[in-house]
Amino acid sequence: MAFHPGGSFFLAAPHRRARPARAPQPSGHRALSLPAGSDPQPEPAVLLVDLAVLVRPGTGAVQGDRAAGLAPGTVERHAYRHSSYEAMLLGLTPEHRWAAGVRQRLAAQVGAVPAAVAVRAWREDRGSRRERMVELLHRAREAGVRCAVLANGAASVRRDLAFHGIGVEVAYCSAELGVTVPSSLAFRAVAEHMGLPPGRVHYAAAGPVAVAGAREAGMKAALTSGPAQLAVFLAELGVQAQARTSTAA
After folding, report:
1. What whole-number distance in Å separates Cα of residue 48 and Cα of residue 148?
2. Which domain holds residue 93?
3. Residue pair 160/126 in contact by the 8 Å Cβ criterion
């Protein structure tokens, strides 16, 4: 999806869509009895990573303005300052419908042709891969750590991960969770989906507000805006890794 030009995947305040309660589904597994005196083995920890730790948000909205000769901030206003953006993040509006709405609003203001040019340039932006951060993530996977990604956005986040060659076990997006980061509800939903208590999840965040939300949910979280911070965080999971120093983060 086209990344927000502000460098953050988060809303100013978390939102949650209303959804009907679901009855618990039977697992189909029988409970196992343990021998007397034995303790169950703890679940392995999981590394949950903010997408912005791995992919640097681009400047698609700016490029759209330039390509179509529009005033600075025009695409951003119609894309990210409109109520449909929050609706898309919550899964209330499909991403393609949100993008179509942006094009329609632009066309009403500047004409159909400039709007088409601007939207094409905007939507082609996928951000840039943060090489050293991705290297550390892949080393964690090689060490046997379960890795997942969380982002505010739609299911196209998975296509972006594939585009940048980033492999994880699973990717979560706010549109499917029905709640946006940094709400603690988003982090609790991820832990529940993975079948883990929140305390077994280590969250590598791109911003301090997300750290607070994850900790409120019971996760272990840290600000990991650079390779050194991420390497320290990985050490808590038993991964001794240091990224190459010659490549930009």
Report:
1. 5
2. 60-123
3. yes
